[in-house]
Amino acid sequence: MKVAPSMLSCNFALMGEETEKIEKAGADLIHLDVMDGHFVPNLTIGPGIIKALRPYTKLPFDVHLMISDPLSYIDAFADAGADIITFHLEADSDPDETIEKIKSSGILPGIVIKPKTPAEAVFPYLDKVYMVLVMTVEPGFGGQSFMSDMMPKVAAIKEEIRKRSSEVLIEVDGGITADTASVAAKAGADICVSGTGVFKAPDPAKAISYMQSL
Ligand code: DX5
Ligand code: ZN
Question: What is the pTM of this model?
């Protein structure tokens, strides 16, 4: 799998250096969690901070929007330097319009689903997106436990992608550690997001290379 460390678990006072360090540790992507205190009960970072981080790495920015009205903010995140933007199917914006807006900004679009949203909900968008992100915790906070009961959902989406001979990638996010990463890889995940599992590991580079070997 590819590994996208979530900056939610880094030292926020040193975000630039932490980004450089995690690139040196072998990360494939940088996962940035944007929360609005409305769609989820937490507040994190916005486009200003993402723009400030952009010069610190050449790695792609994987921006996960946990906000109620993603469509209104695509321009701001495009300007900030996002390479991939994922937004929740459960948010208020029209999914097709949001996908089109992301694409027209030259960014790769992805759809995210919360644990209670079924696999089938993403099927109508599979031919339009670059990635499907399956949450393996309720979005909002780092450090929660991995929900292994999401694995049949990952497998069902993978099967549908295969049936369509499509190249859409599946990303998993929440509670990914060395142990749970292998479960997610077996179910069909292509990319894993890991906050605590990488940043709080005794050796982040080792944690990343192990997950990449799965
Ligand atoms: C949760 C975020 C995740 C989170 C993952 O809402 O989307 O990206 O940072 O953190 P861990 O790996 O600690 O569960
Ligand atoms: Zn995330």
Answer: 0.98
